[in-house]
Amino acid sequence: MRRYTIAALLLGIVLLTAWNPEDDYSLRYGKWKKQYAQQQIKALKDGGVMLVRLQTRNKAIDLHRKNGQYDIANKIEDEQYQENKSILAAFDQYFNFAPVYFFYSDDTEKIKTGNTAGVFLNNKLVATDSIEPNLGFFMVAEFGSLEGETRVIPGDTSVALPDYVPGEVLERALVVRDQNFMQMRDPFPYYLRATIKNKPEKQVNRINEQLYSYYKSATK
């Protein structure tokens, strides 16, 4: 019996010595996530810009007009316009961590491909050629749904199917994404609950404070 105990102990020591924490995907993912968050906050503060994606609901509006429901279409259009106005005003007043520019969700693909001429909006929510920000580095903020977390390390092929972590899913939140439009994750301050439309000031002010706080901790 004693021989078996000694053998088991020796085997355990060999396995422990051979085990490398870097081989554990969860640990590698946690390390990557922390490093990526720090890199993003530093780049955003050091010459980056924040792009705010505004919704249009054009598909719903066009469908109602096609069906002759003009009153409903006009109501949806006006409600979305008022919401976008309030978001623009909130960022203008409460956000100063980085320069801010606005674009409509319909132009998302243009942003992704760098075809941004005439995409960005003036303070009347009208697209204009006169606004041409330097998009060397940018992040994207929007009021929309908060997604669950897909644990993916870009370029890592060591696991066939990374875990999906449901986490908290919200129908409405102020969410921050990277320039690949991938939702950020902890420890980056990437979302805040948002329940009341047309009153985004609290969330915008708070995310601005959280970005400053995280930047301070990431640059110590």
Report on the structure:
With 220 residues, the protein is an alpha/beta fold. Helix content is 44%, strand content 16%. It has six helices and seven strands. The radius of gyration is 23 Å and the shape is globular. The N and C termini lie far apart (55 Å).
Keywords:
single chain; 220 residues; alpha/beta; five-stranded mixed beta sheet; two-stranded antiparallel ribbon; 7 strands; 44% helix
Q: What order do the helices and strands come in, and which of them pair?
A:
Layout: H1 2-18, H2 25-45, E1 49-54, H3 58-66, H4 70-94, E2 100-104, H5 108-113, E3 138-146, E4 149-150, E5 164-165, E6 170-177, E7 191-193, H6 201-218
Parallel strand pairs: 1-2, 1-3
Antiparallel strand pairs: 3-6, 4-5, 6-7
Helix pairs in contact: 2-6, 3-4, 4-6
Gist of the model:
The chain has 220 residues and is α/β, with parallel strands linked by helices. The chain has one domain. The chain has six helices and seven strands; from the N terminus they run ααβααβαβββββα.
Please report the total strand number as a whole number.
7
For the largest sheet, list the strands in their spatial order: 2-1-3-6-7
Percent helix, as a range, is 40-55%
Derived from helix and strand composition plus strand pairing, the structural class reads alpha/beta
The averaged pLDDT comes out at 86
Catalogue the unreliable spans.
13-21
Query: For the CA atoms, what is the radius of gyration?
Result: 23 Å
Q: How many structurally independent domains? A: 1
Order of helices and strands: HHEHHEHEEEEEH
